[in-house]
């Protein structure tokens, strides 16, 4: 029979998910199945999306959920609609907070990726030979998103472990997840600590860190005194690297939408068509990309 | 020779043929009266003349030129100015800005603020109206607003001016100012189309007259001289009305309403009076005399400073219309547009809104009863409408007024009825029916307070009259002592005491 | 021909247009008219549908409520957290209803008594209540301990899921209240002319407070069902719900200027929103194009209704 | 005492209250009253401030515009994309202004001529335009090729960044238009009494179309400056802007019922919003509590203004 697979993501506007879909489409073309792409921003939309997939006769779906605690409901809904379920990016958890091990998952650990960011920052601080006591850190935060909290906390744990003074870390809460909000929040932090010479910045994604970098520029901090490390590695970051002269946006941790999109779709297809169950857990790592090497890093990850 | 001519004008609305084949003409420099029952089509004709609405058929000629204008602006450029029945002012703007609206003075879109205010000041002084041009319209009383409207017509040099019931909110003094303005305009050769339900005014001002009935031309009098009141009434309503007041003696009962030292923000001097069962107490005064204020305080519509109101010896709590209704008192307010009609809702709902509580057990409606109440008052008050389900906003002004009256006249178990200018804008035929209803209610033992601004009317239907002037009760006159000059004298403010209310 | 015109332009015109569109969609969109899809579709509009019932009253009385989304999320959280803490689901549900009602009551009192603009008041409470939900849960979804909580949403009566029955019940109840009770007529009167209604003896302040309180409680019902459906209390749930609900109402002919509302219209409005979403996903329309299509559907639906009603000559109101 | 009361309740009461609050904040919040922080604060309100100028007109004429956020994002994208494609920044700016104006024109025509409710129309265009922005950029941020584009936002005149100057300029221009020109008075008249304005010969339809078109163009200005500030065109920029802008206007005393507006009020409204955000961050208030605080500030600000104006007795009009 015809294979139909759903690919549900929480934020279709994000380039990341556009990429995941793009690579999943590639798999669909190669294997000749139909891919149904649905955006579902909250728990309610997820439920409707699953019903909708069931109604159109799909056999399984891959999902990146808006909230991992939605787990039990999604599992139940998938079962009710007789759909095979696999998660991508973020792993479902049960009411007790432990991961639902039965659901095959491919993803990244938010904490891990945060740690990669933190490590990159520490390495660069050391390389530039700054005194950590004289460095301020901007934590561009968006605390209502659990993944965002895990990422920045991951970065902070590494900073602290390396001896970065906790009192030098300043919170810049974004009202929304766009660059302008991050820019405004970071500006306030910079102005509050006008005497600090060196700054590092991290946050939920590239957009957040870019906001902090723009803020440092607008208050006149030279680019070489700023180390911002983002997460994502899509256009926002690449644009930054393409600028004629280096900015405070030092690097970004690229995660590969290719594996997430292409491989999950392929796994699901094989599960449906050949009964070959995917591995329960596949974790992918992020790779740090800098101004000088981002093209090769991207190539290595299979994205262009 | 004819200066303004209507040729075969027809206009229909869903369910209503407002005008059918109206043709008549008016001479240069003439004041032409337009009369007819409520809903006869007068305002519709005027709206077509103003360019606001277009006729289904027919044409308008001015100075023998056929007019093809399609908007108010075009009509204005053709020399036509219309003062509509409902006030058309912007409350948030000043008097001067309202007068200039649509044609502000200035260069390149920048308003010349001085010219704006000064021209208006000069003009108002010249006309003899005492209004501050920089005052916001929202701060003015209804009567004053009406004067602003009239000033608008006079200020702009027009060839044709149409006035749709301009005196309905004016007292005799303001009306006099208007009449002298009309004389002046007439002398300049302006054609004036004048709509009114007041026969006195028509006879006093008009040179010629057209009567409409049910959207058709009922009569055209190229010369008004020689016609009689009775004749015109018959042409309007299709029947004779002999004694329009129809007052008759009624026995008065115990004291029903007692008011002691009532005062509020706009009624600073405390007012006291009382009304007996079966009594109709008329309140007369000039505009701004404070009668409406008194009524609103009585009812709890505005904030009471001090004083007490009691019905059959039981005190009525202040500042709460609902409580007043429960205590047996209702108020029919004077401003039908802001305080009366409920736009967007049917005639039926507008009538039943208050009285339905008597026949809605547990808050659940009784549609049959509601319909029958509505039908009853539509018939009794002769509301011209295709159906009781019609949106009240689609009714003519007078018919809206009738609907609101219906709301209060349909109340049951009421002890005190306060009505403020009930006959404003209402045709002669319906007026006498309203009086009859009032007499009937009084005979049932109600105490009735009726606020009126026309002396003959207040004298015609009241058992007793209170005259108010500048926020005080200036005189109290029993029916046996009714005397036109005495009442008027009491209503006129003492010129030296130049006080404000 | 003429009688067709009459039907289209009549009172029930919107319904007729909608029925026509429904038939067309049923024929041309594969998998649309299956029992499964219909039930899925109805379930997807439960939240909007339920909240629309009272939003209709709110708009009809010339008010506005932006806080519904936050209240749905907040009361859902409360239901879950109190159920977990007390071990009793009925207790949790009661707490949610009370909290929802309390939010509505506060809205109502501030708007009616302190006379603060409804838009600003509910914009403020929208943020405050969302803040409470986030603070209470530390920004994370709260799981449900007792799985029988899920049964609220999962159970079926005559093969139809309970939430759909509840929505239908509320449609009937509020339709009745609007058309057949003094409360409904007074709501419309207030919307038509608040001052005139006050003078006609309607206790306008009390009415407004009641409408907001009801709205809050109905949001709690929606929040409970939502929490049960998604098996957790989510502080970020139902963001943007306010605009969807208001759109559904306006689509259904409720006038933002007050005084005009009909339950059938609102139901049709809710269904149009649901069907649009459903069909776009069935047709696999790309996410970005969905924005555009959604916008055009909104426009066309109101435009059709406008043409209809202006042809029917609603006059100069 | 009495003269104090007079000042507080007078025309400029809001301003006085605001000035008082400003002084208090300056004293008690460390780092608030520094030149750097002031400039940062002003820059943070540039988008809201600029768009408020025309939103004020829109609300004053009894209309409503929810599409501003999308238009800001879309025209920012256009500015960047056209600049990149043509290699000419002026050309890009022109294209952005035209596109912004076109969105506004469409809004205006649909609302004024097809007589579709402004809320629904702009809710629809909000989605359609956002869809366009996403489609045009494939959902990705678009980088700027020519770095001199950044100079729009980075350059300074007398030590003050250009965007702030532009905002101030627009405040002056639109303040003048509102108070001193036929256009401004007609706007207020339309909002105060549309029927009367029409009967006085004001071309209401044309005015509304103009207001929306201007709004679109002003959004484009904001979009260009935003793109320059964040050095790229982002299709997701400025979501939710509409509610912030409308709040700022209402805070500033613009009546949603039309007819009442003042530029100083709107400026104060914009500043209150900016200061609230800034101070909360300076005081290190936790994110979730910020929601709550933001809500209360909104409420208190309108409440104060209401007390003031009801004490001043605005009558029942
Ligand atoms: N020139 C004026 N300026 C300001 N307020 C006025 C002016 N004239 C009257 N008012 C007030 O406006 C309100 C409504 O005026 P309205 O013309 O209805 O007169 P009124 O006081 O109700 O008395 P009446 O019913 O006797 O005419 C009243 O409170 C009146 O005192
Ligand atoms: N927009 C409308 N829709 C439906 N019917 C209307 C509309 N406007 C007016 N009518 C009807 O047309 C008829 C004529 O109304 P018009 O206002 O011309 O009466 P009028 O002679 O001015 O009455 P009045 O003395 O009460 O002012 C009335 O029956 C009225 O109900
Ligand atoms: O939301 C993030 C998304 O932005 C991308 O980074 C992948 O992981 C998801 O959790
Ligand atoms: Mg009339
Ligand atoms: Mg009066």
From TrEMBL, chain B:
Alphabetically ordered keywords of this record: ATP-binding, Cell inner membrane, Cell membrane, Hydrolase, Membrane, Nucleotide-binding, Repeat, Sugar transport, Translocase, Transport
ABC transporter domain residues: 4-239, 252-495
Keyword Membrane: yes
Predominant location category: membrane
Topological relation to the membrane, as annotated: Peripheral membrane protein
Subcellular location: Cell inner membrane; Cell membrane
Family named by the database record: Belongs to the ABC transporter superfamily.
NCBIfam families in alphabetical order: PRK11288.1
Protein name per its UniProtKB record: L-arabinose transporter ATP-binding protein
Species this chain originates from: Paramesorhizobium deserti
Gene assigned in the entry: araG
Automatic annotation (TrEMBL), chains C, D:
Cellular component, GO, one term: plasma membrane
Residue intervals passing through the bilayer: 12-33, 39-59, 66-85, 91-112, 157-178, 209-231, 243-276, 288-307
Main location: membrane
Keyword Cell wall biogenesis/degradation: no
Entry membrane topology: Multi-pass membrane protein
EC number(s) on file: 3.6.3.17
Listed name of the protein: L-arabinose transporter permease
Keywords recorded for this protein, A-Z: Cell membrane, Hydrolase, Membrane, Transmembrane, Transmembrane helix
UniProt keyword DNA repair, yes or no: no
């Amino acid at each position: 029979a015809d294979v139909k697979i759903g690919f549900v993501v929480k934020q279709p506007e994000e380039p990341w998910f556009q990429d995941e879909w793009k690579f999943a489409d590639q798999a669909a073309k190669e294997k000749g199945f139909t891919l149904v792409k649905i955006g579902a921003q909250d728990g309610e939309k997820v439920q409707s999306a699953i019903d909708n997939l069931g109604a159109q006769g799909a056999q399984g779906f891959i999902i990146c959920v808006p909230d991992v605690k939605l787990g039990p409901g999604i599992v139940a809904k998938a079962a009710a609609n007789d759909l095979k379920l696999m998660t991508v990016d973020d792993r479902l958890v049960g009411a007790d907070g432990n991961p639902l091990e039965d659901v095959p998952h491919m993803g990244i650990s938010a904490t891990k990726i945060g740690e990669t960011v933190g490590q990159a920052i520490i390495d660069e601080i050391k390389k530039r030979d700054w005194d950590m006591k004289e460095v301020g850190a901007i934590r561009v935060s968006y605390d209502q998103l659990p993944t965002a909290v895990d990422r920045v906390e991951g970065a902070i744990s590494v900073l602290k472990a390396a001896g970065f003074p906790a009192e030098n870390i300043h919170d810049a809460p974004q009202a929304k997840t766009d660059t302008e909000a991050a820019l405004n929040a970071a500006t306030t932090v910079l102005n509050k600590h006008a005497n600090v010479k060196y700054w590092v910045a991290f946050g939920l994604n590239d957009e957040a860190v870019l906001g902090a970098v723009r803020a440092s520029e607008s208050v006149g901090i030279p680019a070489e005194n700023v180390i911002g490390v983002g997460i994502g590695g899509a256009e926002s970051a690449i644009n930054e690297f393409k600028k004629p002269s280096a900015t405070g946006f030092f690097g970004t941790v690229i995660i590969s939408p290719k594996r997430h999109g292409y491989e999950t779709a392929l796994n699901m297809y094989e599960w449906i068509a050949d009964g070959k169950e995917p591995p329960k857990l596949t974790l992918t790592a992020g790779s740090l990309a800098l101004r000088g090497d981002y093209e090769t890093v991207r190539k290595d990850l299979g994205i262009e | 020779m004819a200066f303004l001519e209507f040729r075969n004008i027809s206009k229909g609305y869903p369910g209503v043929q407002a005008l059918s084949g109206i043709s008549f003409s008016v001479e240069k420099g003439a004041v032409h009266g337009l009369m007819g029952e409520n809903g006869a089509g007068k305002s519709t004709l005027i709206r077509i003349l103003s360019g606001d609405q277009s006729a289904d058929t027919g044409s308008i000629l001015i100075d023998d030129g056929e007019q093809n204008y399609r908007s108010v602006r075009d009509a204005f450029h053709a020399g036509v100015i219309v003062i509509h029945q409902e006030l058309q002012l912007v409350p948030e703007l000043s008097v001067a800005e309202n007068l200039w609206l649509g044609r502000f003075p200035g260069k390149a879109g920048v308003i010349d603020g001085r010219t704006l205010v000064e021209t208006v000041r000069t003009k108002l002084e010249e006309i003899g109206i005492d209004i501050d041009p920089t005052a916001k319209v929202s701060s003015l009383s209804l009567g004053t607003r009406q004067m602003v409207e009239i000033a608008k017509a006079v200020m702009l040099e027009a060839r044709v001016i149409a006035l749709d019931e301009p005196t309905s909110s004016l007292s005799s003094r303001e009306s006099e100012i208007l009449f002298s303005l009309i004389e002046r305009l007439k002398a300049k050769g302006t054609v004036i189309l004048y709509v009114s339900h007041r026969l006195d005014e028509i006879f006093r001002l008009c040179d010629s007259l057209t009567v409409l009935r049910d959207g058709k031309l009922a009569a055209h009098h190229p010369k008004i001289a020689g016609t009689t009141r009775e004749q015109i009434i018959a042409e309007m309503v299709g029947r004779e009305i002999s004694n329009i007041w129809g007052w008759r003696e009624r026995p008065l009962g115990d004291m029903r309403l007692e008011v002691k030292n009532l005062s509020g923000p706009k009624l600073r001097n405390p007012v006291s009076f009382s009304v007996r069962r079966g009594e109709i107490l008329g309140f007369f005064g000039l505009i701004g005399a404070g009668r409406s204020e008194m009524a609103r305080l009585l009812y709890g519509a505005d904030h009471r400073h001090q004083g007490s109101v009691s019905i059959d010896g039981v005190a009525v709590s202040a500042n709460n219309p609902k409580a007043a209704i429960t205590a047996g008192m209702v108020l029919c307010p004077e401003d039908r547009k802001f305080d009366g009609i409920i736009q967007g809702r049917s005639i039926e709902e507008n009538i039943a809104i208050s009285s339905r509580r008597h026949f809605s057990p547990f808050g659940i409606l009784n549609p049959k009863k509601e319909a029958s109440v509505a039908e009853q008052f539509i018939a009794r008050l002769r509301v011209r409408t295709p159906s009781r389900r019609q949106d009240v906003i689609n009714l003519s002004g007078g018919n809206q007024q009738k609907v609101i009256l219906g709301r209060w006249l349909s109340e049951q178990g009421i002890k005190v009825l306060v009505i403020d200018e009930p006959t404003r804008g209402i045709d002669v035929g319906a007026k006498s029916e309203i009086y009859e209803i009032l007499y009937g209610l009084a005979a049932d033992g109600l105490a009735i307070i009726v606020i009126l601004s026309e002396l003959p009317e207040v004298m015609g239907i009241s058992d007793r009259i209170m005259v108010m002037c500048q926020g005080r009760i200036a005189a109290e006159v029993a029916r046996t002592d009714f005397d036109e000059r005495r009442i008027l004298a009491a209503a006129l403010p003492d010129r030296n005491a130049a006080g404000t209310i | 021909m003429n009688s067709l015109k009459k039907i289209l332009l009549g009172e029930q015109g919107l319904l007729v247009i909608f029925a026509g569109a429904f038939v067309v969609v049923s024929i041309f969109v594969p998998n649309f008219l299956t029992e499964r899809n219909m039930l899925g579709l109805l379930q997807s509009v439960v939240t909007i549908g339920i909240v629309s019932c009272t939003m209709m009253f709110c708009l009809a009385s010339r008010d506005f409520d932006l806080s519904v989304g936050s209240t749905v999320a907040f009361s859902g959280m409360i239901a879950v957290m109190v159920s977990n803490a007390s071990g009793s689901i009925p207790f949790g549900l009661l707490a949610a209803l009370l909290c929802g009602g309390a939010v509505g009551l506060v809205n109502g009192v501030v708007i009616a008594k302190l006379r603060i603009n409804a838009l600003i008041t509910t914009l403020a409470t929208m943020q405050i209540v969302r803040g409470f939900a986030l603070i209470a849960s530390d920004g994370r979804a709260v799981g449900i301990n007792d799985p029988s909580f899920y049964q609220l949403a999962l159970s079926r009566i005559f093969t139809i899921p309970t939430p759909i029955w509840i929505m239908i019940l509320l449609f009937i109840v509020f339709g009745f209240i609007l058309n057949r009770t003094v409360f409904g007529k007074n709501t419309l009167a207030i919307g038509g002319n608040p001052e005139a209604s006050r003078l006609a003896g309607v206790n306008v302040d009390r009415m407004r407070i009641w409408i907001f309180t009801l709205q809050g409680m109905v949001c709690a019902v929606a929040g409970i069902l939502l929490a049960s459906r998604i098996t957790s209390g989510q502080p970020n749930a139902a963001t943007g719900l306010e605009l969807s609900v208001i759109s559904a109402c306006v689509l259904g002919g409720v006038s933002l200027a007050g005084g005009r509302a009909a339950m059938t219209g609102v139901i049709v409005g809710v269904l149009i929103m649901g069907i649009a979403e459903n069909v776009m996903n069935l047709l696999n329309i790309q996410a970005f194009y969905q924005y555009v299509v959604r916008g055009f559907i909104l426009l066309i639906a109101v435009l059709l209704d406008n043409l209809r009603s202006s042809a029917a000559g609603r006059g100069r109101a």
